[in-house]
Amino acid sequence: MATRTFTITQSGATRTFTVSSGVGPAGSGGGGDALVADPLSQFAATTSAQLAGVLTDETGTGSAVFATSPTLTSPVLNTGVSGTAILDEDDLASDSDTQLATQQSIKAYVDDAIKAVTITAKVNEAGGITKGQVVFISGATGGFPQVSLADNTDFAKSDVLAVATETKTNGQNVAITIAGLVANIDTSAYTEGAVLYLGTSGNITETHPTGIYAVERIGHAVKINASTGSILVELDGLTVINDHDGIMRHQIVNQNAGTSASAAYTIVNDAAYRSSLSMVGSNYAVVAGISNSLIIYNEGYNKTVNAVDGNYGFEWWTDETDSHNLTSTSKMSLTADGELHTLCQTIDHTATEADDHALEIDCDAAGFGDVKAIDVAYDTGAITTGQDESIILVNIDESAATGGDVTALEVLATEGSANINGMLTGVGVNPIEQLSGVFVDMDSALVNATDRLTDFTTAGSDVQMFVADDDTVTIGSSAKFEEIEFLLAITANLSIRPDFEFSTGSGTWTTFTPVDGTNGMRNTGVIAWLDGDIPTWAVGTGSEYLIRITRQRNTLSTPPTESKVQIAAATEYKWDKDGDLIVNTVTATGNVDSANTGANAPVSTAQEAAIEAEAQALNVKTQYGATGDGVTDDTAAIQAAITAALAADRSVFIPAGDYKLTDELDVPSGSIILGESWVGTTLTQTGTNKHVFHMTSDGPRYGFTHIEDLWLVGPGMGATTGYGLFGDGDPNGLNNCTFRKIRSTGFNKGGYFDTVDNSVFEQCNWGNSGNTNNVGLHITGNSNAVSIISNTCFSTTLGLQISSGNAIGIRGFEMGGGGQTGEILIDGAAQVAIRDFNAEWWPVGDSVDNIAIDARHAQASVVIENAHIRYGATGVSGYSLALSTGQVVLKNCSLSATYSEGGKDSAIRQTSSINSLLVAENCSSVCVNIYNTGGTFKARTRVGLFPAEPEASGLSASENHRGRFIFRTLLDSVSSDDTLSIAIRIAAGTYAWVNLLDYYVDKLAGGGGSPAFLTAQNTFTGQRQTLQHSGYPAWAIRTGADAGGASRAVFGITTANNFGLTGANAGDTYISAKSGGDLVFGSNTGTTGQTSRFRIKDDGVLSFDTQPTTYADDSAATTGGLVTGDIYKTSTGQLMVVL
C-alpha cells in the first residue's frame, strides 16, 4: 500500500495530510484515497445535517459528536452551562463523582471549610450519624478512622473526636469537624453563648454532667435556630480517659532545678482563693526541709476538708522497699467515722440520756443518685461448710429488760413520691433466714471436766469460766440444738479467742465457725449456727450432741463469769432467693395475688398452701350472704360455702364479724376454713347442746381438714354435751388435720376428737363453760402422732384429757385458774410427752383433789420436761403430779404444792395400788411423801412426794402396795412455818423402792422436831445425799405416826442441840429407839421377816438374843471359821475378840 504525505501552509497555519493508495480519505469508510491532513474548507460549505447523512456513528442531535464520552482538550465555553451534570450545593452534600459543582457552591463550601478543621471518617454506627452529633473513634478501616456516637455515661465512648458536619448512613464517608464552626444545625435547645457538653447517644447538652459521668466540653452555642443554627467546636476533655493495665498518668512536669521550682495543680474559686497540690523540686529552699515533698496547700481562707465519697477512710502508707509502686505497707488509717486506727478498734459507748447515739450518720443525698450512707465491701474468702460469717451482727442483751420494744433495724420515712424499701436483696440472695424456738436448759454442762449443769441453768450462780488457756466449756443435749445463750455476770476484758468444736462420735471432734454474738465472751450474747453447717454432728460421750468451746488466748486478766446458760433447738423458716417461703402461719388481711403460675408462682411450698387457699377462698359474706351481725342466723350461708368449697377444691374465708349459729356445721374431710383473726371472727353457737364444727372422716381424703383464726363461743352455763370442735374420726380416722389459732370457750368441751392421727393443735385457747365436768381438749380413740403446741387453758375443770393414743406431744402448754379435778388427765393407755408446761392455780373450797398432771392409767407412759407447776389452795387437797401407775419421767421440772390447812398437799403423789415407776432428774419439788393410809395428815402437814395412797376403802400391808422412785440431782425444800413438814415420807403399809442420787434437802422446819425423811416399810437407798437441817436431825428415817415422838424410832446425825441426847456431840451419828423400846440388831432370814441377833436395851444393857459360838481360844475360833474382829465366848462365858 503506497502512502503519500502532503503539507499545506495557509495563513500561517500548517496542515499535514497522509494519503494511502487503495483507500479514501481517512475515516470515510469508502474506497480510493482520502484527504486526512487538510481541513474540510476545501469542500463546499456543508451543514451538520448534511454531514450527518454520510456519518454512521453519530450521537445526539444538532452538532455531530464523534464519541459517546468525548474528551475535550482545552475547550472554551463562552456562555453559562446547565443541566443535570451541574450541581449547585453549598455543602456539596451529594458527594458525586460524575457531576460538576458551580462556582457559587464551591465558594460557599470553601468559605465554610476555612472556618473549621474538618476530616473525613467512616460511619461505624448501625443507625447512622446525623449532622451535629458528637462522635468518637471506634476503629479504623481503609485508611479512614471509624467513628461512632459518643456517650458521657460510658467512659469507653466518652473520648470525643469531633462533631459530624453531615448526615450519613452506616459505612459511608462522613465529614467531621475537629475545631471550628458547624452551621445549619438545630440549636433551638441551647442558650446563645452557652457552654456545651457531651450528653448521651451523641447528643449535646448545655447541662454540666453530674456524678461520675464524663465531662467533655464540646464548645459554645453561636447561633440559635431550629435549622440554621451553629456551634463553635472547641473540644476540651475535662475527663482524661484511657484503657491501660497500669498506672495511668496525667502529668505536670517541671524540669527546672531551681530553689523555687515546683509542679502544681492550682484550684481557684469565685473569690480568687487558691489551693494547690504541689510537688516541690529537689533544691526547693523556700521552706526548709521539704524538698522533694508533696504539699497540699491552702492559702488559709477557711478550713481544709478531706472528704471521701462513700464509707471509706484515709490511709497512710510507707514505701518500705522504695519500689515506687503500691506494694507498700499501711501504717495508719483514718476511718470514715473519724477514728484513727493502727489496729482494729471498736466504739464503746454508754448512753447518758434519752435519744443518745453510739454512732450517728447524717447523710444528705442532695438529689444525687447512687448515694450511700454506709457502703460495706465484704470478701468471704475461701469459706467452707461449718463456717458462718456475718456482715453486720446485732447482738442484743435483753436479760435486764422487763418490757419495751427493741428493733435491730428500723426504717422510717416521711411522705413523698420515692419508693422506700426497708430491705432490697439482689439476685442469688436469700432475703430472710429465721431460727424460731425458745431457750431451755441443756442436758449437761461441763467446765473443763467439772459438772456445772445446775450452776449454768440457775440464774445468779456466777461460775467463772475459761480461767486458763485451753480451758473448755462443753454443752450437751440429747437432741440437736442451734443456739447457746450466755448471760454473763462478768465479761472478759479481751476475747478468749474461742475455738468451737462439735462431737462426731465418742471422744472425736470437728472444728467449725459459728456466729459468735458474745464477741469472744466480751459481752452477753448468743452463739448460733445452722444444722446444715455441721452435717456430721453425732452424739459423743454420754450419748449427747456436744459443743465444746476452748479458750485459745494465752493471757487474760479478767475471765468471763456466767450468770445463766441455755440452749435453743430452732426451727428454720426462710424466704429464699427464688422467692419461695417456708413459714409457720400466714394470715392475710387483704387479697393475695395468685395469678402467676409455673416458675413465677407466689406459692411454691406445702407450708404455704394456706395462702393459695385463701386467695381462692369462697367468701361467706360477699358470695353466700352471711351477715356477721350477731343477730341474723348465718348457719345456712356458712354451710353452703363449706359444701361448695369442698366440691370446687377451694377454701372458705370468714371475714371479721359475729356469726350467729343455731345448728352445727358439718365439715367433711378436706375442708379448709379460714377466719380473718381469732379475735375478729366469732362463731356463736346458740343451739342447745350443739357443736360449732362437726368433722367427720367422710370425703375423699379421710382428714386433711384445716381450720384457723376463729373464736368459737358456746352458751356457757348449762352446756352439757356441745363441743366447739367435734372430730368424729370413726371409722376411718381424721388424718393430717391442722387447727391453728382457735379459741373455744363456753362449751362442755372446747374440742373433742375420737381417733385423730398426724394432726396439730397450735396456738389454741380453751375456755370454761362453768360446768364441773368441763374439758378444754379431749383426745381419745385410736389417736396417734398428735401435736399440741403453744396451747393455753384457763378456768377449766380439765385442761387436757388424753384417754388413749400413742406419740401425743404437748409442748408450750400453759394453764391457770380455778380448776377442780386437774389440768392434764391421762386416763388411758397413752404415750405422752409434755414439754415446756406451766401451770399455776389456786382453787378455793373444792371438795375434791386438785391435780396438775394426773397419770392414772396402768399402761400410760409419760415424759415431762421443763415443767413449772405451782399449786396453792385453802382447805383442799392438791398435787402437782398424781402418779397412779405406769411410767413417768421428770426432767428439769419444778413442782410444788403450797400450804393447805387440813389438806394433803404434795408435789408428787402416788394414788394407786399398782406398781409404778417414777424417774426424776434435775428437778425441784417441795417435799416428797410416800403414803398409803386413808386418813388425812394432821393440821399444817405438807409433803412433796405422796405415792402409794390407797383408795377410800383402805389398803393393807399384805397387798404389797409398791412403787419405784428414782431421784437424780433433785432439790427439795420444806417450808419453815410447818409444824410437821417432811421432805420424804413413806407411810406404813407401803412397799416403796426409793433411790436417791445427788440429792439435796433443805430442811428448815419450825418447832416440833420434824425429820427430813420419814419412812415405814420400804426399800430406801441413797448415794451422795446432801441434807441440811436447822436445829434438828439433818438426816432422819423415822417410824411411827405420832407427832410427839413417844413411839417413833429415828436414825440421824445430830446437830448443834444434839436433838436432846445426853452426852452426844454435834455431828454424831445416832440410832434412837422409841420410848421404852430396845435398839435391836438382826439379820434377814428371808422374805417373811428378820431374826434378832443382839440388842441394846432401853436401860443401856447389851443383850445377845443369839449366843456366840463357844471356842477354847483364838486358834480354835480361827479353825472354826472366825476371822480377826469376830466375837466368840469361852466355856466360862467370857466374850472374846479374835485378834
Description:
The chain starts with a strand and ends with a strand. 4% of the residues lie in helices and 38% in strands.
Structural class: mainly beta
In whole angstroms, the N-to-C terminal distance is: 178 Å
Number of strands: 82
- Number of helical regions: 6
Helix content: under 10%
Q: Characterize the biggest β-sheet.
A: 14 strands, parallel
**Mean pLDDT metric:** 75
Strand portion:
35-45%
Q: pLDDT under 50 segments (min length 5)?
A: 22-35, 595-614, 844-848, 898-904, 926-964, 968-981, 1002-1010, 1014-1036, 1038-1048, 1055-1060
Summarize the structure.
The protein is mainly β. It contains 6 helices and 82 strands.
Which key features would you list for this structure?
1139 residues; mainly beta; 14-stranded parallel beta sheet; 6-stranded antiparallel beta sheet; 6 helices; 4% helix; 38% strand
Topology summary:
Blueprint: E1 3-10, E2 13-20, H1 48-54, E3 86-87, E4 100-101, H2 103-113, E5 116-123, E6 134-141, E7 144-149, E8 160-164, E9 173-185, E10 195-198, E11 204-205, E12 216-223, E13 229-237, E14 262-268, E15 274-280, E16 294-298, E17 314-318, E18 329-334, E19 340-341, E20 432-436, E21 439-440, E22 444-447, E23 450-451, H3 453-456, E24 463-464, E25 472-477, E26 483-490, E27 499-505, E28 508-512, E29 515-516, E30 525-528, E31 545-550, E32 561-568, E33 571-575, E34 581-582, H4 609-615, E35 618-619, E36 629-633, H5 635-647, E37 652-654, E38 657-661, E39 665-667, E40 672-675, E41 681-685, E42 693-696, E43 706-713, E44 723-728, E45 734-735, E46 738-745, E47 749-754, E48 756-762, E49 765-766, E50 775-780, E51 784-789, E52 792-794, E53 798-802, E54 805-816, E55 824-826, E56 830-841, E57 850-855, E58 861-871, E59 878-883, E60 886-891, E61 894-897, E62 905-910, E63 916-921, E64 924-925, E65 928-930, E66 941-945, E67 962-968, E68 971-974, E69 980-986, E70 991-997, E71 1000-1003, E72 1013-1014, E73 1018-1023, E74 1026-1029, E75 1036-1039, ...
Parallel strand pairs: 3-4, 5-7, 35-37, 36-38, 37-40, 38-41, 39-42, 40-43, 41-43, 42-44, 43-46, 44-47, 45-48, 46-48, 46-49, 47-50, 48-51, 49-52, 50-53, 51-54, 52-54, 53-55, 54-56, 55-57, 56-58, 57-59, 58-60, 58-61, 59-62, 60-63, 61-64, 62-66, 63-67, 64-68, 65-69, 66-69, 67-70, 68-71, 69-72, 70-73, ...
Antiparallel strand pairs: 1-2, 5-9, 6-7, 6-8, 8-9, 9-13, 10-11, 10-12, 12-13, 14-15, 15-16, 17-18, 18-19, 20-33, 21-32, 22-23, 22-25, 24-32, 25-31, 26-30, 26-32, 27-28, 27-31, 29-30, 33-34, 75-76, 76-77, 78-79, 79-80, 81-82
